[in-house]
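User: What would this chain look like folded?
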Amino acid sequence: MTDGTRLLTILLKASEKAANIARVCRQDSVLFKLLVQEKSDEEKNPRFFQDFKTLADVLIQETIRHDIEIEFPELAKMVQGEENNIFSNTLGESVIVEIQSDSDKTTALLAKVMASEWETAKLLASEVHRNIDLSEVPFTVKIPADLDICIKDIGIWIDPIDSTADYINGGETIDIESGLHLNGLRCVTVLIGVYLKSTGDPILGVVNQPFYTNFNGMWKGISYWGYNKNGIGECSIANGGDSNKVAVLSRCEDDYLKNKLLANNFTMVEASGAGYKILSVALGQADVYILSKGSTYRWDTCAPQSLLLSLGGGILDYQKFITNPDSDDLNVKYLTSSTNFSNSGGLIAYRNKEILEILKFILCK
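Assistant: Here's the prediction, encoded as structure tokens.
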């Protein structure tokens, strides 16, 4: 098994462990309310008046980091995520959430966060330290045995729970015409993206939807993966799909862009979660996701961008595209020299290049 295949296997198992933790954290509504903490002004997404992190966010991020480090110790410092790992308990004490050497020690640490809720802390710790078998991960396409990745040249971005507000609020609203979920738990994703430090190009991504189906009150998820290098793409999502001119947007999108799309017979759907919106493009449920604002971050886009690249699509910088759509320097990249983690120029996520010609006519004239 090559390092690339081994890494993808680890990321898939880590994503399912993350999904299990996310589901466990929502089982007890009273306890769940104790786990929600408002972010500081420095951490908030400027789009939102309130932005929250949860213990699930922090615990998932640290669990993924921990599991990657076990298999690839050299990647320990190369794993970055949205959340810091400091959480305040109900007594006002700050607790650094780190995965301990065994389940008992992790239980003791989590109990500090959760006002001595030892049984729940033990349950979460058991999920953190449980060995996940690949057969437990819900994906549909066999992993190739020869994925080529140079471990020394990669960095990793994690969004432990993308669309935290929907994770907290729950619920579900569906657009009948497109079948897209506008908000709710279906819009929640776990995102793990791998990029090349030498070029900033995404190369491997895993997207897990922990709350994909609900049967008798029990949630089950689904996972997707994509690999792309030197024009060779492997993906768990099938190719194909005709354009229906469906554009998925954020609720904060400018009326100028909406009017342009409406005038050119696009159906517009406003949905939650950057990860979910990009995934909907990869799955062919939407033709394009357009965001004119710089309100997404590297952890939002690295993983699903890898899926799109493996399918022949990608994510472009919106501002660069409308200024010079024929430039060779439009792709969103992840170079480590930058300290600004936002996709400040906005983005255009697409699966089929034909849609870019339509957008060039609409947006660049």
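The first helix runs from residue 3 to 25. If you want, I can go into more detail on any region.
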